[in-house]
Amino acid sequence: MRRTRIDFAAPGVRRTLFRTPPRFIFFVPAVVPLLLSLLTQFDTYREKQAELQALHSAIAARHAAPVAAKPVVAPAPKVILAPAQANAINDAIMQLNLPWRDLAEAVRDATPASVALLALDPDAKRRTLRITAEARTSDDMLAYVTQMQAVDLFSSVVLTRHEVMEQDPNRPLRFQISAQWELR
Amino acid sequence: MRKPQSRRIGQSLRIGVAANGLALVKHSRMFGSAPLALAEQPLDLFAPDALAPGLRMLFSDLPLAGWPVSVVLADDLMRLWQVAPPPGATRMSDLEAAATLRFGHLFGANAAEWRISADWDAGKPFLAAAAPVVLLEGLQAAAQEHRFHLVETVPHFVAALNGWRRERRPGAWFGQVHAGVLTLAAYEGRALAAVRTAVIPAGADRDWFEAHVAREALRVGIARPERVQLCGAAPSNWASSPGRLKFACSLLETGDDGWSELARLARSGSAA
C-alpha cells in the first residue's frame, strides 16, 4: 500500500535522507562509479569548453588586429604667427564673415526710386556701411535718411556729408550716409 | 534507563508524545534489529509549559546531539479528518482552503492555532491531520536545545498506517487499538473512505467488534469489509475464529509483548 504523506517536520536535507528507503544503500556501489565517471566527463567537458573559449578569443583577437593597427594621425605642427599677420588674417576673416547679402538687400529695399545709389562701402572692423547716393531734392535725401533709420538691421544711421553738384545740369544733391549694423 | 550509545548507520530515535507522558525508543531501519525502549517520562501535557521540562527529564543524560529523531503524536492530541478535493481544483491553495474549511466545519477550532498537513490529492478524497502549533513549536525548540534533527513528526495513526503498509492488503480495513481507543480506516477498494474513532467498552468481544464494523460501514455508506487488519493492543479474541466469520480479522501484533502504552506509541511506525 502507498505511504500516507502526512508529516509536520520542517522540510530539509536530513528529512529527505531519512525518508529515502534503506534499500537505496545497495545502489551506492552502482551509483558511485557512475558519479565518478560523470565527474570525469564533466571535468573533460570543462577543459574542452576552456579550449574552445581560448580559440574563440584567439579568432576574435585576429579579427580585431587590423582595426587595432589604425595609422596614428600625427598632430598638426604648431604655427607661430607675427601679430601683424594675425591681424591681417583676422581682418580677412571678418571681411569674409561680412553679412553682405543682408546689407545689400536692406539698402535696396529701403532705397526709393527718387534716390540713386552710387556706392556701398562696408567697413567690417567698425561694422559700418558708407552709402553714397544722389537725390533730386533735399526732401528726398532726408526722407531717405529717415527710411534708412527705420531699417532693423542698422543700429544708427547718420548723414555725414551732402553737396549740390553744380557741374551737373540737373544739379542733383550728392550725399553720404554712415549706417552701423548690428551683430546677429 | 538505557543509553542510546553511539549511532550506527540507519539508527534513529523515536519519541512518543501523549497527554499523559513521553517515551523514547531507539530504532534501526537496517539489519532488522528490534526497537529498544530507552526511557519514559510521565507528565500532564496540558499543564502550562510541561513539554520542555518533560523532554529534558526524558533525555536527562542521554547524548542526543546529531541523532535523527521521529516524533509520534498521540491521536487524542491531533485532529484527523477526510477532505474531498473541490471540483476542478488545480492549485495547492485550493486543496489547502478545502482542508481548512472542513477542519473549521468539523471541529470548530481556530485554524490559526493548528497546523494542517495532509496527503494532498486533487483527484480523490485524502486524509488530513492537524496538530497544535504550540506543541510543534515546543518540539522544534527541544530539537534546537538538545541539538537533534527532527526528521519526522506524525500522528500515531498515520505512523501505524505507514509502518504496516507492506502488510496491509488492498481493500482491507485497517485499525489500531491504543489506550482503549479503536481507530478504523475504512477503505473502499484502495481508496480511503473514512477514519473513525471509538472508545472500546470494557469486555468488548468479537461480537461487539463485528457490530461496530457493520455500523461504521453503514455510517460511511460503503460495503462491509472482507478483512480487517488490526495493530496495537487488540484483544486476541477479535482475531478470526473458524466457523463464525462475517469478515476476517488479523492481528498484526499482540498486546502482551511487555511494552507499555507510551513505549508502544513511540514505537509505532517502526515496523516499516
Task: Characterize the structure shown.
The complex is a heterodimer of chains A (184) and B (272). With 184 residues, chain A is α+β, with helices and mostly antiparallel strands. Chain A is 46% helix and 20% strand. Chain A has a four-stranded antiparallel β-sheet, covered by helices on one side. The longest helix of chain B is centred in the middle third of the chain and has 16 residues. In chain B, a hairpin with a 2-residue loop joins strand 10 and strand 11. In chain B, 39% of the residues are buried. In chain B, helix 1 runs parallel beside helix 3. Chain B starts with 10 loop residues before the first strand and ends in a 5-residue tail after the last helix. Chain B is built from six helices and 13 strands. Chain B has 272 residues and is α/β, with parallel strands linked by helices. Chain B has a five-stranded mixed β-sheet. Chain B has a five-stranded mixed β-sheet with strand order 11-10-9-12-13, with helices on both faces. A three-stranded antiparallel β-sheet of chain B has the order 5-7-6. At the A-B interface, helix 1 of A face strand 4, strand 6, strand 7, strand 8 and helix 4 of B.
Q: In a nutshell, what does this entry contain?
A:
The complex is a heterodimer of chains A (184) and B (272). Chain A has 184 residues and is an alpha+beta fold.
